[in-house]
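Give me the fold.
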Amino acid sequence: MNLTLYVWRQKGPKEMGKLEQYEAPHVSPDQSFLEMLDDVNEELIRTGKDPIAFDHDCREGICGMCSQVINGRPHGGQDRTTVCQLHMRSFKDGDSIYIEPWKAKAFPIVKDLVVDRAAMDTIMNSGGYTSCHTGGVPDGNAVMIGKPEADYAMDAAECIGCGACIAGCPNSSAMLFTGNKVAQLAVLPQGRPEAKARVKAMTETLQECGFGNCSNHYECQTSCPKGIDVKFIAKLNREYIKSLLP
């Protein structure tokens, strides 16, 4: 396949960025999207040009580092697929592909397709953990947890923290991401002692970091490569209201 790429190029957070056109000839349909970008970069390096900067790590859909907006959709828009799992057979010969970084106030662009997602770490550091003593490893099996609660917590724990929900939301809301972390611990006995303090701290932090509010577009659920359900936003809201009660 021969493809035309329009890639966002930006030297740094304070520089002006723009889309630049590149040709990607002889693309194999069996290649992953990142392998195709690797080939484009090899040609750019060969001709003495600056390669396209993009994040990646596991290339197995686990870490979420490969975050890119492809043709207007985070991770390319395929159901439960990260960019590194996206294959070129999803495109047709002669297609034009637009590749952009996550765009949100809280995600300043580092270079090209790489953004600084430290704001998500800030939310986690504010309360996405348990600090109370939970015993040793064997003690984890001493507390009986019902299957519905365990399944609910595991569904929330599927979040890989890639930020697709934020990039897809027109408000750049981080409520699905935050809701996952709050809900996961709120239903487990180890997380209940700090539940009120946790949801207050994490909700206040997401606002301080510059994320928007949820207005029920449901684009976060659609964009999520793990299919995280918006029910966790409802849980976040319920937990926050409970934390305000005496």
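Residues 33-46 form the longest helix (14 residues).
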